[in-house]
Structures are given as C-alpha cells and as structure tokens.
C-alpha cells in the first residue's frame, strides 16, 4: 500500500508524529500533503509538541489553540531566530532594549551574600527558577512568585535540572561540597512542582581524603543518568534507576567536558569530540550502596576501554586549553538532532561556577566550535517501512558547522548561537550571536544590554529569551518581545 492511498485522517495522524522539518519536506511533494501540512490543525499539533517538549515557554495549550496559523508559524521561526528584540534591525547596540518585560521575585537574601553566575537558572519552559540562596537551593515559580521548595544546605556547590513529564516535575542533581573526609556527595531527587515535594532518587556520599568536587563541577542530568566532574579530570556517571555509578575519564591529563543525549554521552576535550553509547558502559557499573570511595573506583578510560561511536577533532595540534565547556542544544526543527557548542578557554576564567568578576584578555581569544549531531530516527514509522520489516539502527552523524574565535568572555549559548557576552567597554552583559551562515563569524548582532549589572544566568529559551539574574536583592527574570 502506498502512503497516499491512506485516508486523509490517517495521513494527518502520521504527519502529526513528524517534526517541523519533515512536515515542510512532505508539503513540497504533492498537493494532498501540501494542503495537510499547511493546515491549521497541523501547525497547532507542531507547536503543541514543541511546547510539550519545553521549547516554547510562556504559552499555554489554550494560547496555542487560539492562535491563527500564521502566528503559529511565527512561533517556530522565533525558536530559531530568537525574539525580535535580538535582531539587529530591532535594537541598538547602545541602548538597553525597550521591548523587554520582567518579573521580580523576592526571595529572602542575606545582605552581602555573594551570588555567582551559576547560582540562578531558569528551567526550560520558563515556569520555574532555581536559586542557590544562602540557606539552600530554592525553587521559585515565576508566574506567582511562590517558593515551591527548598533544599536546606549551605554547601550546594553545583546543581542541574532535567524537566520531566511535560513540565510537571524535574529531576535535580545537587552536588554537596565541603572538606574531606565524608563531606562531599551527590543527591538526585525528583521535584514535583505542584506539590513541592522532592522524592529522593539517589544519595551518595564520597569518602576518602580527596577533594573530589572542585569547581567547575559542571553537573549534568538527563533521563536516568547524571554526571559530575571530578578533580582528577574524570567524571562519575550515575544511573539513579539502577542505583549504580561508573567513573569515566581520559588517560591523558587534559580536561574533558561531558553531556548526555538520548542513549549516548558526549565527551569533549580541547582536541576531540567523541560520542559514546551508554550501552558501552554495560558491565562497568558499581552499585552505589553506602559511602563511595572514588579513589578506589576503577576508571573506564575513554578511547581505550570503550570506543566512541563517532568522533571528530575540535582543535587538532593546538595548545592546551585549561577550560573546556560543552553546551548541547536539541533542535526545535528536527527530532533527535542537536547542536553541540564547544568553548575552549585559553585561561582559567571565572567560568563556570567560579565566583568573582572574570576577565578575558582581548588577545586571548575563546575558541568556539559548533557541530551538528544527528541520532537518526529512533525507528522508522511502520507505515513508511512496511509491516514486519525492521531496519538496523541508523548511524550517528557528526558534522562541523563552524569555528569561531571570539575575543570576549561568552557563556550560555542557545541552539541558534545566542550568547551572553561581556561588552568590550564596560564589561556589561549583553546578548550577542555567533552566526552560522557560510560567511558568518563571531558577530555581535542584535546586541541587547541588560538593564542592570546583573549576576547572570543562562539564556534559556530562544522563544521568550528568558534571562534570570540577581540585582538589588531581587531575583529578576527578564523576557524579550
Ligand atoms: C551556592 O552557595 C554556596 C553558599 O553561598 C556557595 O558556597 C556555592 O558555591 C554556591 N553554589 C553555586 C553553584 O554557585
Ligand atoms: C505531582 O503531584 C500531583 C499531586 O499529588 C500528582 O497528581 C501528579 O501526578 C504528580 N506529578 C508527578 C509528575 O509525579
């Protein structure tokens, strides 16, 4: 049976399982698919899916259903390009953007408590903010300014979150700092946003005489897995569902950064980017029962004990960069496709997780690379392949898009390349963009200055451009139109 022999309703259901890019391609093949792909119901489905997956914040399901088709298309466009205020035509490099709104939250902050860039994070979907306050890690709801939950501890060294269940809850990894012995550890919890209750998923205390957790710890959490960087240039990876952990690292002594994508982890040094299957760690997990002595745990050497599925060079034969940071952003247009941004910092800057001002000398450029990583379809839809036919897993694709040298201190990059960067003159923070066009280079397009000198947190969504920071003892979440 051919695809087009299917009844229209079935074709629509199939299209509704596709991503924006497939729907656009289908619409160019013939009139029937073109009409279905341009229909209002199709675009509601596409935008609702993007909203459910956390790409679109500040829009309810009802908002989406009430939007005309052209506005729905504009939502998708904005996910790629960012708010209009971030485009060069709309803003001036010199004035703060007028087309911005903000929400002010009022957590009790001790006077003189120092905040760093890593202390405030807006979670994907833009509904909640995590704040590392003097009394512990706090979760605030943006819409009504309510404190949802607090983890009491003055030793929260780093944290990360993975929003679950279409925004109902989040899994958090919390790194507890402190002096050895017995004072460091990792907590993984599931926080239900509506009840404000956190269920413990995994709790590990590190024993031994070593400071395992030294900034930047750069924790990551995704699905069943979390990872925390150790001082010894290795990572400890946790599988909370199996209550197990595994230490991975490189034999060479240079730094690596690690992040997860479905079924895989990405390990990046200043020389190479490598993608490993999580399945490669089978048989290497250790049960996390009781306190863990990481000095006694065998390290799984990347590239030696296990081999990457795919790899590329980041900066071959280059000098050693002491700081490597990786930011992995899923594509809003193509399912199971990511942009991997890799920052190589020539000095040990105040980044990330370090306190203080941070200053990058202009003759010491930051090296920034961007790769596209495609996992291929999970499995081809049965209707397209034919019943009973099973295909082997498609290969991963890793493709270098661009390399930049940027003379600024940059951080927090979105899918489209929007960053927060310091401006040359006064070291204020502003939104800039690394353009990926063939002639593109590091360009400060759409430079939007923030109103105050803030303690910065990531730009979370390209959609609302939410940026959170602490200023004058308030927690401010700023949005752009
Ligand atoms: C959280 O706050 C504590 C106490 O002020 C501080 O020592 C720690 O470095 C902070 N953690 C992060 C991630 O900034
Ligand atoms: C959060 O709690 C509410 C109320 O108990 C419950 O209905 C909901 O299923 C919970 N959500 C998750 C994701 O556990």
TrEMBL record:
Entries under Gene3D superfamilies matching the protein: 1.20.1280.50
Lineage top rank: taxon: Eukaryota
InterPro entries reported for this sequence: F-box-like_dom_sf, F-box_dom
Keywords: Signal
Residue ranges occupied by any F-box domain in the UniProt entry: 1-46
SUPFAM superfamilies: F-box domain (SSF81383)
Extent of the signal sequence: 1-25
Pfam families hit by this protein: F-box
Record carries keyword Signal: yes
Name of this chain's protein: F-box domain-containing protein
């Amino acid at each position: 049976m051919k695809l087009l022999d299917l009844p229209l309703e079935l074709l629509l259901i199939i299209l509704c399982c596709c991503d924006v890019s497939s729907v656009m391609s289908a619409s160019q093949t013939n009139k029937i698919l073109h009409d279905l792909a341009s229909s209002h119901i199709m675009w509601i489905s596409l935008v609702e899916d993007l909203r459910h997956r956390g790409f679109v914040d500040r829009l309810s399901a009802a908002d989406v259903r009430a939007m005309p088709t052209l506005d729905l298309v504009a939502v998708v466009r904005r996910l790629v390009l960012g708010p209009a205020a971030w485009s060069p035509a709309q803003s001036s490099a010199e004035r703060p953007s007028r087309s911005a709104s903000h929400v002010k939250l009022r957590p009790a902050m001790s006077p003189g408590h120092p905040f760093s860039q890593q202390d405030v994070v807006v979670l994907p979907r833009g509904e909640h903010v995590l704040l590392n306050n003097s009394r512990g890690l706090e979760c605030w709801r943006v819409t009504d300014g309510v404190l949802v939950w607090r983890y009491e501890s003055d030793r929260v060294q780093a944290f990360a979150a993975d929003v679950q269940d279409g925004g109902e809850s989040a899994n958090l990894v919390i790194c507890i700092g402190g002096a050895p012995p017995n004072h460091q550890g990792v907590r993984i919890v599931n926080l239900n946003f509506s009840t404000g209750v956190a269920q413990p998923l995994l709790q590990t205390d590190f024993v031994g005489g070593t400071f395992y957790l030294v900034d930047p710890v750069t924790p990551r959490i995704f699905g069943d897995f979390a990872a925390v960087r150790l001082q010894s240039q290795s990572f400890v990876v946790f599988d909370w569902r199996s209550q197990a952990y595994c230490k991975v690292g490189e034999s060479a002594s240079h730094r690596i950064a690690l992040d997860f994508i479905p079924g895989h982890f990405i390990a990046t040094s200043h020389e190479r980017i490598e993608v490993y299957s999580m399945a490669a760690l089978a048989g290497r997990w250790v049960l996390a029962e009781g306190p863990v002595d990481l000095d006694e745990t065998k390290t799984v050497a990347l590239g030696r004990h296990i081999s990457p599925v795919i790899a590329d060079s980041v900066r071959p034969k280059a000098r050693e960069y002491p700081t490597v940071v990786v930011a992995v952003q899923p594509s809003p247009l193509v399912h199971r496709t990511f942009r991997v941004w890799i920052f190589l910092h020539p000095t040990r800057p105040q980044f990330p997780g370090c306190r203080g001002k941070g200053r990058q000398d202009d003759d010491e450029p930051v090296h920034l690379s961007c790769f596209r990583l495609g996992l291929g379809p999970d499995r081809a839809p049965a209707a397209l392949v034919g019943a009973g036919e099973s295909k082997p897993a498609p290969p991963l694709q890793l493709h270098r898009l661009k390399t930049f040298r940027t003379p600024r201190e940059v951080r927090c990059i979105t899918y489209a390349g929007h960053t927060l960067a310091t401006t040359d003159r006064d070291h204020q923070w502003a939104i800039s963009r690394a353009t990926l066009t063939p002639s593109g280079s590091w360009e400060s397009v759409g430079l939007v200055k923030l109103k105050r000198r803030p303690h910065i947190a990531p730009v979370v969504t390209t959609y609302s451009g939410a940026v959170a920071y602490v200023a004058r003892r308030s927690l401010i979440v700023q949005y752009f139109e």
